[in-house]
Each structure stands twice: as C-alpha cells, then as structure tokens.
C-alpha cells in the first residue's frame, strides 16, 4: 500500500476496473511509475468490492444451460471473456457469467501481478481538486476515511476513474426517512438484517432486483412485494457449444399480469435485463408484483398511489440503481 505521497506526476481517483486498467497502461505502454491511485475503500475492485447482495444465478459451463445455482454475491450480466482486460485475458472462468467473488478476486490478482499495490493509497477519499494555473498543477484535498485526517497533495495530471456505479440512488419518495423498520439499498446490502419470516418491500425491478429477488424468495417464509414502475425486457441465455445466443422474453406472469408487465418501448430502448430466475420466481406464492405506484412511505410500510392501499412491511430494500451522473 502506498503512502498518500505529497507530490506525483499522475494522480488517479479510484482503484476499480478503470483505475487499474489506466495504471497498467501507464506502466506497460509508457514505462511510467510516478503515479498514485487514491481509493476510499480498503481494497481494489470498486463496484465488485462493494456490491455483495445475494443472487440465484444461471450459468453455462460449456455446452448447455444448467439449472440455477446459488452463489454468494451479485454477478455479471456480461460474459466474462468479454469483461476481462485485453491485457489480462482469462479463459478459465468457472461459468460464463462471473460471480462477485470471482470478479473481485480477478481484479485483486491483476493488481498483484502488475505490482500496483505499492502505488495505491487505500482509505483515502479525494474530497477536492483545483487546478492552480500559476503552479500548473492540481491541488488535491485527500481525507483519510479511518482517521479523518485531511491532507493536501498535488499532481501534474489528475485522472478520474471513479466510474458510474459508485453512489447508490434512493428513489425520491415522500416519507422515506420515517420508516421504522430496516431499510437499505441493494448496492450496500446489510448482512445483519435477517429476512426470514419478514415482509419485504423491494422497490425497483432492474438488473439488481432481477438477481436478488429470486434468491431471497427461495425461502417461503420471506414474503416479498416487488414494486414495478416500468417493466423491462429480459434475456434468457441459450448455449450451444461455443455459439452463444439469446432469446428475448417479456416479463410476464400468466394472463393476469400480461398487460401490466409487457414493456411499452421497443426492445433495446432500455437496458436489457439478464434473467437469473426472475421469471420463475414470479410464480411463487410468496412474491407479489405491484404496479400501483408508491404515493408515500410511512412508519410501518408503503401507501400505494393508485388506490391508497396501506401495505405493512418489516424491511424495505431499494433496488433503484445509481446516481450515474454524480461522479467526478
């Protein structure tokens, strides 16, 4: 681990995929070593370090689509042979789509292999950066996230590699702060919350919800209401030898929900969702899809917008994505 060095030629913000890739390019393509990477966390990996929600995931070993398998943490929705660095190719992934643990370990191994840890200043958050035209350098404010100590550093070049999947976005719903039960965002999964025997509200039906809803509803004692604002298109993988194709499927739950959950937009207008058992889970008696909208959140649950129904909950999980424009 690098100390928060006072002066460097290049300062990189973030030790996730982008920061690691940029640092490797500096060393391999330019033979450049006078750089530092600041990261507010205690390890590399970025979003693959922070996202630890449970998932029930389909995988394709070699020739055929198997049944779903339980794995810890989230998973990719992109085949791993395409999600690895071109400079650090890996062809022996256990499955076609990697788990959070596998991808996290991949980035740690890449950092070790390229001797990047000596360049990384962990637990240091870049809180400010200002260009000084007189000195022709960046004045960078850095805060130690453990001690709270504020440091001033400089660099000739400043590179933001924080990515867009950093800051979880909570939906702006009236009363969100009044809920007395457990509440958290799927991107910051609270492992201390036991969902067994609980009434759980899941707000959102994008890629994250499609991964963890099938997992948590595996337990019939967990009753989930999934609030859907706008339905999306799902992809289900089909593997035939080395040829990978996809079948687009509408989110549907038999005839009674077909009109509610058929996407109104053409396929491809919004991000396609990789189906990891979401369609199957919709047929479970302990999962209800709700399309009535949310009027407000109250102390013990949610009041719907369509008919003012009050639905009590013990736990509320926001699967509402990230503030993708709130990055440096």
Taking the alpha carbons of the first and last residues, their distance comes to: 24 Å
Helix/strand structural class: alpha/beta
Spatial strand arrangement across the major sheet: 5-2-1-8-7-6
Query: Segments where pLDDT lies below 50 for 5+ residues?
Result: 59-72, 239-255
- CATH H-level superfamily of the largest domain: FAD/NAD(P)-binding domain
* Apparent shape: globular
GO molecular function: flavin adenine dinucleotide binding; NADP binding; oxidoreductase activity
Keywords: Membrane, Oxidoreductase, Transmembrane, Transmembrane helix
Family: Belongs to the FAD-binding monooxygenase family.
InterPro entries: FAD-bind_Monooxygenase_sf, FAD/NAD-bd_sf, Flavin_mOase
Protein described:
With 328 residues, this protein is an alpha/beta fold. Helix content is 16%, strand content 30%. It folds into 2 domains: 154 residues, 3-Layer(bba) Sandwich (FAD/NAD(P)-binding domain), CATH 3.50.50.60; 143 residues, FAD/NAD(P)-binding domain (3-Layer(bba) Sandwich), CATH 3.50.50. The strands form 5 sheets. Strands 5-2-1-8-7-6 form a 6-stranded mixed beta sheet. Strands 9-19-10-11-15 form a 5-stranded parallel beta sheet, with helices on one face. The chain has a 3-stranded mixed beta sheet with strand order 13-12-14. A hairpin with a 5-residue loop joins β17 and β18. About 9% of the residues have low confidence.
């Amino acid at each position: 681990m690098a100390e928060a060095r006072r002066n460097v030629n290049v300062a990189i913000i973030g030790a996730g995929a982008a920061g690691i890739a940029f640092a490797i390019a500096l060393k391999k393509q330019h033979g450049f070593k006078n750089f530092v990477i600041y990261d507010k966390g205690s390890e590399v990996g970025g979003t693959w370090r922070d996202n630890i929600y449970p998932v029930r995931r389909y995988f394709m070993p070699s020739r055929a689509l198997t049944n779903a398998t339980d794995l810890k943490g989230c998973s990719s929705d992109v085949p791993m042979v395409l999600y690895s660095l071109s400079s650090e190719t890996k062809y022996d992934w256990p499955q076609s789509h990697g788990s959070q643990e596998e991808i996290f370990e991949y980035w740690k191994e890449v950092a070790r292999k390229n001797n990047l840890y000596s360049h990384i200043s962990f637990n240091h958050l870049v809180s400010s950066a200002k260009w000084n035209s007189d000195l022709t350098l960046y004045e960078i404010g850095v805060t130690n996230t453990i001690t709270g100590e504020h440091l001033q550093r400089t660099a000739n070049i400043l590179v933001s590699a924080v990515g867009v999947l950093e800051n979880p976005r909570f939906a702006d719903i009236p009363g969100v702060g009044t809920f007395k039960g457990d509440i958290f965002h799927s991107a910051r999964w609270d492992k201390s919350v036991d969902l067994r025997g609980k009434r759980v509200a899941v707000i959102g039906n994008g890629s994250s919800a499609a991964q963890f809803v099938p997992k948590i509803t595996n337990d019939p004692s967990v009753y989930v209401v999934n609030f859907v604002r706008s339905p999306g298109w799902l992809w289900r993988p089909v593997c035939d030898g080395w040829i990978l194709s996809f079948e687009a499927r509408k989110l549907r739950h038999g005839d009674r929900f077909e009109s509610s959950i058929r996407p109104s937009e053409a396929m491809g207008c919004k991000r396609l969702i990789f189906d990891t058992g979401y369609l199957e889970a919709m047929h479970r008696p302990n999962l209800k899809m709700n399309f009535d909208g949310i009027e407000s959140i109250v102390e013990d649950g949610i009041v719907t917008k369509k008919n003012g129904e009050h639905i009590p909950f013990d736990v509320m999980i926001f699967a509402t994505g990230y503030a993708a424009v709130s990055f440096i």
